[in-house]
Write a structure and sequence with these properties.
By secondary structure, the chain is an alpha+beta fold. It is built from nine helices and eight strands. Helix 1 (about 1-25) packs antiparallel against helix 2 (about 30-55). The longest helix has 27 residues, at about 30-55.
């Protein structure tokens, strides 16, 4: 009788969920809303089923507390990982370190969250052998318990923009000041329109997090490296537009530098340098 009641309850709840989802799908076309309805109804009916079936099977146990005390230690040892993953699911649902659709990095894996379940969540992987955070095509299933053991980096939660940098190295003989003006103009061309949006988003994020950015406009930094003068463009960008923006920026850089005979990109090369002829006059060897 207990088995028959359990089967009838499970079948009834399954059928009721299908009816509810059928009604929802007729009225809702947005994929994300459909997904949330499907997950929410699944959780609700699972809880209801556990309560009904559990009450049916445990009806004969008068000393329920004693029974649970005897088996709790064994369950804790045998089901340690599933229980940790279940606790991780509760943490994700309650604290919401990420939602479906967010781009995150956890335990050395990066990707877009495409599913959340009781014991694991699923990522559409990015990065790896693919440059600029684009998709690899692989699906990664990560146990929910990893949220307790590893830091979670969220690209979208709070401040939804990221800082990106494009380093450009010139030869020491190049007119680096002129090149810096060109790079600044290119950076403003591709990123200045985001400044106002970023300021509004930063104001919203500051209500929850202590984010203190004083300068959101693009900027070009100067430094010296072994092979030449390095000019580094730094600007804000949406995470999913990173590679397209870098490509467009480099096309503009190559186009503008081609017009300038006094600017050369540096690359690994070897050439002789005669200090007596090419060096600064004050530093050349003096005649005996």
């Amino acid at each position: 009788m207990h088995l028959l009641v359990s089967v009838l309850v499970i079948a009834g709840l399954w059928l009721l969920q299908k009816i509810v989802l059928a009604v929802v799908y007729r009225r809702v076309t947005d994929p994300y809303t459909r997904y949330r309805w499907r997950k929410t109804t699944t959780y609700v009916f699972i809880v209801v089923g556990i309560l009904i079936v559990g009450r049916e099977w445990l009806e004969g146990f008068k000393a329920l507390a004693t029974f649970l005390g005897l088996v709790s230690a064994g369950i804790a040892i045998a089901l340690k990982d599933p229980l940790v993953n279940l606790a991780g699911w509760a943490f994700i649902v309650w604290r919401r370190p990420f939602d479906v659709g967010d781009r995150i990095e956890i335990a050395g894996h990066k990707g877009d969250v495409i599913d959340q379940r009781l014991f694991q969540f699923t990522l559409n992987e990015i990065g790896g052998w693919v440059d600029a955070d684009q998709s690899t095509g692989r699906i990664i299933h990560i146990p929910n318990g990893r949220v307790f053991a590893d830091p979670v980096a969220n690209y979208d939660k709070g401040f939804k923009y990221i800082w990106n940098e494009v380093p450009v190295t010139l030869t020491y003989e190049s007119n680096w000041k002129k090149a810096k003006e060109i790079l600044t103009a290119v950076a403003f061309k591709h990123a200045e329109h985001l400044t106002a949006e970023a300021e509004r988003d930063l104001l919203t994020a500051s209500r929850q997090y202590f984010i203190n950015y004083r300068k959101l406009t693009p900027i070009v930094y100067t430094s010296g490296v072994d092979s030449g003068v390095r000019l580094t463009m730094r600007y804000l960008i949406e995470p999913r537009r990173r590679r397209g923006t870098v490509s467009a920026i480099w096309e503009d850089i190559l186009t503008e530098f081609a017009k300038c005979p006094d600017i050369d990109l540096a690359y690994p090369t070897t050439r002789p340098f005669y200090n007596a002829v090419e060096g600064k006059p004050e530093l050349r060897p003096k005649a005996p």
